[in-house]
Amino acid sequence: MDYFIRCLKFILPAAEVTILVTVASLALGVLFGLLLAVARIYGRPGVRLAAALYSRVVRSLPSLVMIFIVFFTMVSVVPGASPLVMAVVALGACTTAYQSEIFRGAIQSLGSGQMLAARSLGMSRAAAIRFVIIPQALRLAIPAWSNEAAIVLKDSSLASAVGTVELLRRSQHIAAANHHYLPAYLACALIYFCLTFLTNRVLDAAEKRFRLRT
Amino acid sequence: MVEPILKVEDIHKAYGKTEVLRGVSLHVLPGEVIVIIGPSGTGKSTLLRCINLLTPPDKGRVWLEGVEVTDKATDINKVRERIGMVFQDFNLFNHLTALQNVRLALIKVKGMPVKEATDKAMMELEKVGLGDKADNYPAELSGGQKQRVAIARSLAMEPKVMLFDEPTSALDPELIGEVLEVMQNLAEEGMTMLIVSHEMGFAREVADRIIFLEGGVVVEDGPPEQLFTKPQHPRTREFLHKLTELYGEHAESRTRRRRR
C-alpha cells in the first residue's frame, strides 16, 4: 500500500502532460474536424472527395501507427521537434477524422430547412454556415463528442511510445526502477479513471446547458 | 398602366426526368395578393423557390422591380433581402430566441447595430402579437406562434414581396386562424404577396387573384369569384369540387370565426 501511494505521488505530476496532449489534440480536432465536415457537405465535388478520403484513410489506421508515421516523418523534416508536439500532431490528425464524422452527422441531422431559411433572408452561404448551421451542429454534437474526448484522453497514453513522458511512461519508469509492476499500473489506471470521470461530468453538464431543443 | 413589381417569364424546372414546371409566366402588380392553388406535386412550392432562386430554374427569367433576378450579374443575396419567404415548417433557428431569430439577418446581412436591430425586431414581434414571447426559444412556442415569428423575421428585412409556401399546412386546425389573421393584416397594409395555400376560405376573402396550377402550367388565372363560382376550365372545376368534398364548409367557417 505504501508503494502504491508512492507510485501515485510519482505518476500524478505527469497528468499535466496527459491533459496537455489531450486538450491540444482535441482542439486541433474540433478546428479541422469542423472544416472537414463543412467541406464534405458544402464543398465542390473535388473538395468533398478529398475530405472523405482523408477521413476514410485515417480512420482505417491504428492511432499508434499514425504516431509512428508522424514521428518518423517529422524526425527527418523538423529535427528539433519534441515528441510531445509530434504526438499532438498525430493524435490531432486522428481525432480530426473521427470528429469530422461527428460534425457531419450533426449538420446533416439539421435538415435543409435551416439553410433555406437563412439564404431566403439574404445570408450568403458562408454566413449561413457560420451563424445558423455551425452553432446548432456544435450543440447537437456534444454527446458524441464527449465520447470522442474520453477516447482521445485514453489514446494519449500512446504518446509514451515515442518518448513523451505522460502518465503511462511515468508509470513504466517507477515500475522498472523498483521491479514492482502491478501497483504502478494500478495507480496509473486510477488516475486515468478519475480524469475520464471528470471529463464526462463536465461534458454532461455542458450537454444539459447547451442542449438544442426542437 | 402600373408596372408589375414581379415578373416571371416562362419558368421551366425539372428534377431528373420529372418536369415540375413547364413554362410558367406571371405578372404581379404592387400590392396584389395572389393565392396559388393546385394538386400536390404540381410545382407550386417549386415556383415560389424559383422566384428567389432557392431552386434555380432550368430556363426562364424573373424580374423584381425591373431588375433581372436570374441575371448572373445580379447579387442574389441582395435580391433575397427584398423577397421575404415563409415556409411550411417554419424553419426558425432553434438555437436562438424569437427576438434573436428576427434580428439575426438585420445584424449579419444589413449590418445594423445590435441595439437598433433589437428595437426593430421587438417592433416586428409586437406587430404579430408576440412581444411577450421575445425571449422564448422556438421549442417553447406553439406552431402558430412559430409561424408568426417566422413572418416577423421576414418582415424585419422590409421586403417588397412576400412568398408564403403553405404557411398553415403544418399547423393544428385551431392555430391556423392566428396565422391567417397576421397575413390578412399584411395584405390590408398593401404588401405584395404570393401564397401557396389550401385555405380556400382565406383565398376567397383575401386574394385579388387565384392561380390554378396543374401539371407545371397555369391552367387558370382570375379573380376569386370567377374561379370559385364559374371556373372556365374543367380541371379547375374538378379540383375545387374535390376540395369541397374534402373540407366542405370547413375552410369558410374558419375565416368567419376569425372575423367574429
Low-confidence stretches of chain B: 250-260
Structural class of chain A: mainly alpha
Percent of residues in helices of chain A comes to over 70%
Globally, the shape of chain A reads globular
Helix and strand pattern of chain A = HHHHHHHHH
**Helix coverage percent of residues of chain B?**
40-55%
CATH architecture of chain A: Orthogonal Bundle
Distance between the termini of chain B: 38 Å
For the sheet with most strands of chain A, the description reads: none
From the 3D structure, determine the CATH topology of chain A.
Answer: MetI-like fold
Largest sheet of chain B: 6 strands, mixed
| Mean pLDDT reading of chain B | 92
Mean pLDDT of chain A: 95
Instruction: State the helix count of chain A.
Output: 9
Distance between termini of chain A? 53 Å
Question: Can you put this structure into words, describing what you see?
Answer:
The complex is a heterodimer of chains A (214) and B (260). Chain A has 214 residues and is mainly alpha-helical. Chain A has one domain (15-164): MetI-like fold (Orthogonal Bundle), CATH 1.10.3720.10. Chain A has helices spanning 2-11, 15-42, 45-59, 63-77, 83-109, 113-120, 125-155, 167-178, 182-210. Chain A is globular, with a radius of gyration of 20 Å. Chain A starts with a helix and ends with a helix. Chain B is an alpha/beta fold and 260 residues long. Chain B has helices spanning 44-51, 76-81, 98-108, 114-127, 143-155, 173-188, 200-206, 224-229, 234-247, 250-259; strands at residues 6-15, 18-28, 33-37, 59-64, 67-68, 83-86, 161-165, 192-196, 209-214, 217-222. In chain B, strands 6-7-8-3-9-10 form a 6-stranded mixed β-sheet, with helices on both faces. In chain B, strand 1 and strand 2 form a beta hairpin. In chain B, helix 3 (98-108) packs across helix 4, helix 5 (143-155) runs parallel beside helix 6 and helix 6 (173-188) packs across helix 10 (250-259). The longest helix of chain B is centred in the C-terminal third of the chain and has 16 residues, at 173-188. The A-B interface holds A 113-114, 116-124, 127, 131-132, 135-136, 139, 212-214 and B 52, 54, 77-81, 83-85, 87, 89, 91-95, 104-105, 108-109, 137-140, 150, 153-154, 157.
